[in-house]
Amino acid sequence: MAIVVVGGQSRNLGKTSVMAGIIMALPAWNWTAFKLTQFGHGRCSLDGKPCHCATDDHCYAVTEETDRAGGSDTSRFLAAGAKRSFWVRTEQGRLVEALPAIQRRLAETQNAILESNSILQFLQPDLYITVLDPATADFKLSARTFLDRADAIVLHSSGVRNQSEEEFRLPAMTSRRVFRISPPDFVSEDFIEFVRDRLANAAARSPSPSPASS
Prior knowledge:
Layout: E1 3-8, H1 15-25, E2 31-39, E3 60-64, H2 73-80, E4 84-91, H3 95-107, E5 111-115, E6 127-132, H4 141-146, E7 152-156, E8 177-181, H5 189-205
Parallel strand pairs: 1-5, 1-6, 2-4, 2-5, 6-7, 7-8
Antiparallel strand pairs: 3-4
Helix pairs in contact: 1-2
């Protein structure tokens, strides 16, 4: 089984679009997609709404998406061609408690793609891609923590810079491939070729059968 993780420095940078682009471009991998969301204190993991219920009863929830025509991110994964799609919600800092439920579903998949930074605390993917935008000041701790583990960077080419760009440390990351994007285009042919090659290499190292080329 191949595992791909797509993370990013902040919200609304196109992580979901990058995931959907990979799923659509590489359908032979029969993806199961996961979106992981961590809610702050006072919000319920069942629905993300304000909540004052017992934390231990609502520290995480996992639901499977079935609507391919919906407007949610998990629906977008299905529309792109994912075989299954899950939304995992946890209370901030309690992702570890959802890990057994995630692992059970991973065990049922052929190949998995997950939208998250924090999941890297608990697994080593075959490929970790991070989405960065120098024009965005917000830089999540989880994104900073795992930046050096990125195999590839999808970088917004907005032409705008701010002080957060120093945190990218791009000049020092010589072993990372950088793919520049200009939304609404979030994936390019060379990016997909990079992902395909990395997955093929991972499959060659694995005793499990690999999917056909697409």
